[in-house]
Amino acid sequence: MSERTLWKKSGFALLLLAAALFGCTPDGGNGSDDPADVGVDGGEGEGEGEGEGEGEGEGEGEGEGEGEGEGEGEGEGEGEGEGECQGAPVYDLNALGTPVEGGFTIDATLGETDTFPAGECGVAGMDGNDAVVRFVMPEDGVWQFSTQGTEFDTTLARREVCDDPFSELVCNDDASPDSGYSEIIIQGAAGTQVDMIVDANGVVEPAQFTFSAVALDVNPPVIDDMQVWFNPDSPTVGGPALAADLTGGDTEDDIVGFELWLYDQAGAPIPIGQGTDSLDFLFASTDFATLEQPGDGTFSMTMALGLNPNLGAIGRVQIAMIDAYDLRSEPMGADAMAPEEVEEGAACDSIGARSVCNIEGSACYDRTPFDETDEFLCQVTTPPVLTGAELYIGRDPNAVGVRLTGTDVEGDFLGVGILPRDAEGGELSLVAFNNQLALEDQGGPINILAERVYEGEEPGTFVVEASLGTSFSLPCAELVTPPFDECLEAAGQDQAAQDACVEEVNARFNECLDDPSPIFDAIADAEVYLIDAAGQQSERLVTPITGGPSDAEDGTPCDGAGAIYRCPAELYCVGDPGTNRNGLCSAPIVECPDVWPTVTVGPGMDGVWTVEGDSTQADALSGGGTCGGGGPVQILEFAAPEAGTYAAEVVDAGEGDTLVYVRGFCGFADAELELACNDDAVPGETLLSLVEFEAGPDAPVFIFVDGWNGTFAGPYTLEIRRVQ
C-alpha cells in the first residue's frame, strides 16, 4: 500500500508547490507580479522611414536587437502625416528637456489629433490628444516618469515600439486615487530607450503638459544572514517540511516580496514554477511567510511550509528579497539543516521543520487549535482509538463523507483519513482534485479536516464527521497537456493562433473536469482512521458504504459537501465563512460577516460607477471564486438602481493580474450562488478582469476584487455600468 498522505483543506497549512496548469493566457495567466517594469534591451537596429514631419529626424537607433525594420517616418516636433510614432509629436527629453536635480523636465504640447488609444489603463469614453516623450537613460538605475504639474488628467503608457499598440509594457492612469497625473517607475540600464505616450483624458486640443524623468535614490535590500531547515518526514504535516529565517537591511523599508529557489541534495535546481526554477511571492498574498520591518532600515523574514513530496529532498535554498521598485537583493543561499530535537514541555516548531520532540509518545502541538492563541509545546499524547465507522457517498454533486466514533485521552480530534478501495481491495485515489498528478502518483489516503466533533452515545466517546466534495475526475493534465504544447508550437508567434490554443485546451480541461468519473462508481469500501492534533493516527478500520446523505431540516447540522446530510432545496449548509465548520442548514445571509470590511460603491456619473480601490492592506477572507483567487480581497457592495445586466471591469491595476467574482450572498461561497467570475477579460491580451451579472434594485451584490492565484494586492480602478 502506498503511504502517500495528503491533507485537504487549509487548516493544515500544507502548500503544494506546483504551478496552476491552465490559466487564461498561454503562460498560465499569472502575468507579472513585478511592481516595476525592467525595461528593454535595445532597439530594432537600423530603421528607414517615410513621411512628412517637421523637426530633426534621427537616422539610426542603437540597441541590442538584430535585423532591419522599416518604420513610417521620423521627426521630432509636430509632424504631420504618417511619420514616426504614427505622426504624433515626439519630444527628445535628453536634448530638449531642462536639467533638474536627478533628471530632466519639459513643458510640451499635445498633438493636433488623438493619435493613440489610451492604453490598457485608459479611461473609457475619455479619448484625448496625445504626444510621445522619448528618453534614453544616461545611467543605470530606477527612473520615475511623471506628468505631475499638468493641469488636466493624463494617462501614461510605455511601448517597446511606439508604432505598435501590442508592444505596450506598462500603463498608468493616476499615480494615486486622489491625483490626476500619471506616474510610471522603471528600472533599466544606461542606454535604455523609453518611449512614453502622454494621453490627455477628455482634452481634444493641443494643450500644454509637463513631463519629468528623475532618477530615484533607492537601494536594493541586503540579506545579512540566512538559516534553513528541512525535515523529510514531519509528523505535523505528514510529509516534508521546510523553514527559513532571514535578517538584513533595507534603506527604504519597502520590501514587498521574495524570490525562491530550491535545490536537491546534489545541488541541482528543482523546478517549482511553470518552466522556471524560481518563483516570486508577495507577502501581501502569501500565508507561509511573514516579514517584519520595524522602520529602522532592517528586516526579518520567517518562512515555514509543507511541501509536495514529489519535489524530493531539499538540500539547499536560495532567496532574494524584492522591494517596491522591483530592486532585488543579491541572492543568498544556505544548506538545509536537520531539525533540532527538543524535550517535553519545550516550545517547538508547529510545522516540524526547525524542531521535533525527542520524547517517545510526545508531539509538538497546540492543545487548543481553534482558539486565537498559538502555543506549540512538546507534549506527551496518546493516539485516538477508533471504535466505529460509517462511509457515505453523495451524488449531484459527488462527495464522500465519514462518521467515525472513537475515544481519545486528550480529546483533541483534528481530522479523519480515508482511503477508498474497489471490490478487489485495490486503492482508489481521491487526490485527483488538483488534476496534476499522474495516476501512478495518486495512491494513498487523504486527510480531511473535521467539520463536526461531538459527544457520542457511550460515555467517553466522541463522533467525528468530515466530508470532501470534488469532481473525482480523471487526471486532466495528462489528457490535455501534450496537445496543448503541440498547438502552441504550431502557433509560433501568431497571437490569434495562440488564443485559439488556449480556448481549445480550456474547453478540453473543463470537459474532463465534468467527467462523472469511473473512480467514483468503483468505490466499494474504504480504510478510515482518526487523527489528533499531534498528527497521531488511530488504527485503521475497513468500512463498506453505509448509504447516501440523510435529509436535514432547517437549523440542523450539515456537511458542506453534502455527503452525510443534505439540506432542503431552499436551504444551504451555511457555516463559518471559509471553513464551513459546524454548518447548519439555513438560508444564506445576504450581508457580509461583521469581521469582513466592505466598501460601498458611491453614486455613479453618466451611467458609470467608478471605484478607486486599494487592496494593499486587505486580508485573504473568502477563499476565492470558482475561477480562482483566494488572496487579499477588497469587497465592494453595489446596489443597482434598476434591474438589468451590469458589467464590473477593472480598468487599471498597474501591472497586477486581477481576478473578480460577484456574489449575491456575501459570505456564502457556493458556486450555485456565485453570479460571475473572471480572471482575464481578453485571454492572452490583458491581465485585467471583466464580469457581467444580473442585479436588481432590491438585492445588493458584492464584488470581490482578488487576484490570479491570490497574487494581486494594490491600487486599482474598477468601473460598473449597465450593459442591458
Strands of the largest sheet, in order across it? 1-29-28-32-33-26-27-31-30
Q: Give the termini distance in whole angstroms.
A: 58 Å
Ranges where pLDDT stays below 50 over 5 or more residues in a row are 1-82, 432-437
Number of β-strand runs: 46
Strand content: 35-45%
Q: What's the overall average pLDDT, rounded?
A: 79
Q: Helix content range of the residues, please?
A: under 10%
Write the layout of secondary structure elements.
Layout: E1 6-8, E2 46-48, E3 68-70, E4 90-92, H1 93-96, E5 98-100, E6 103-109, E7 130-136, E8 141-146, E9 154-159, E10 168-172, E11 183-188, E12 193-200, E13 208-215, E14 222-234, E15 239-249, E16 255-263, E17 278-282, E18 289-292, E19 298-306, E20 316-323, E21 332-337, E22 340-342, E23 355-357, E24 362-365, E25 377-380, E26 385-394, E27 399-407, E28 413-421, E29 446-449, E30 452-455, E31 462-469, H2 476-491, H3 495-513, H4 518-522, E32 525-532, E33 541-547, E34 550-551, E35 565-566, E36 572-574, E37 584-586, E38 598-600, E39 608-614, E40 634-638, E41 644-652, E42 658-663, E43 674-678, E44 690-695, E45 701-707, E46 715-722
Parallel strand pairs: 1-29, 2-3, 4-7, 14-21, 22-23, 26-33, 34-35, 38-40
Antiparallel strand pairs: 5-6, 6-13, 7-12, 8-11, 8-13, 9-10, 9-12, 14-15, 15-19, 16-17, 16-20, 18-19, 20-21, 24-25, 26-27, 27-31, 28-29, 28-32, 30-31, 32-33, 36-37, 39-46, 40-45, 41-44, 41-46, 42-43, 42-45
Helix pairs in contact: 2-3
